[in-house]
Design brief:
Length: about 180
């Protein structure tokens, strides 16, 4: 991630298959990435269905800002539960554990991640989108995947998944799956 980035230049971009990936049941469209912004931010259009949410985690490097275009979600951060729906936004500072659960069938939101570069982690694990639609229902999601490789890649980008004890402590209202 310590590479020389090009000087940003003005550009126009719309969602397209060429800049979109399928990752763990999620359609992500990278509208602006590290290379486009000189490392300032990533801007992602995320389309997700209920059940494809990432597990509770913490970013050491990035702040995240969500703007919900369609759908509803509950965000768990700093011991609180924030109910967010279309037309509302949520800021998540770096270093603060967080998670979200989609409350509608699907959600569509813009995600601003600053500084840029985190989407390179996703790109390392994603498949090119075949169309601008959610991946098939049988796609591997976080809840169905072996997360060992995901955790190794995320750690390179300063993201760490939380242990059960941390989830209970940091976000007590988060619904925990029963221990197996």
């Amino acid at each position: 991630m310590n590479k020389e980035l090009p000087t940003p230049k003005a550009f126009k971009r719309a969602p397209s298959v060429e800049i979109s990936t399928w990752y763990k049941g999620i359609l992500s469209t990278l509208l602006a990435g590290e290379e486009d912004t000189g490392g300032a931010f990533d801007l992602v259009l995320s389309n997700m269905r209920k059940g494809t949410e990432p597990p509770p985690h913490v970013h050491a490097r990035e702040h995240e800002f969500y703007y919900v275009l369609a759908g509803k979600l509950d965000v768990y951060a700093e011991g609180q539960v924030f109910h967010i729906e279309a037309g509302e936004s949520m800021f998540l500072p770096k270093g603060k554990p967080h998670a979200f659960i989609i409350q509608s069938t699907e959600i569509r939101m813009l995600c601003l991640i600053t500084p840029g570069g985190f989407m390179n982690a996703i790109k390392d694990m994603a498949a090119p989108a075949k169309k601008l639609e959610l991946p098939p229902d049988d796609a591997i999601t976080y809840s169905k995947a072996n997360l060992e490789q995901t955790m190794r890649i995320f750690e390179k980008y300063g993201v760490r998944l939380l242990a059960q004890e941390e989830i209970a402590s940091e976000m007590p209202a988060f619904p925990m799956a029963p221990a197996v």
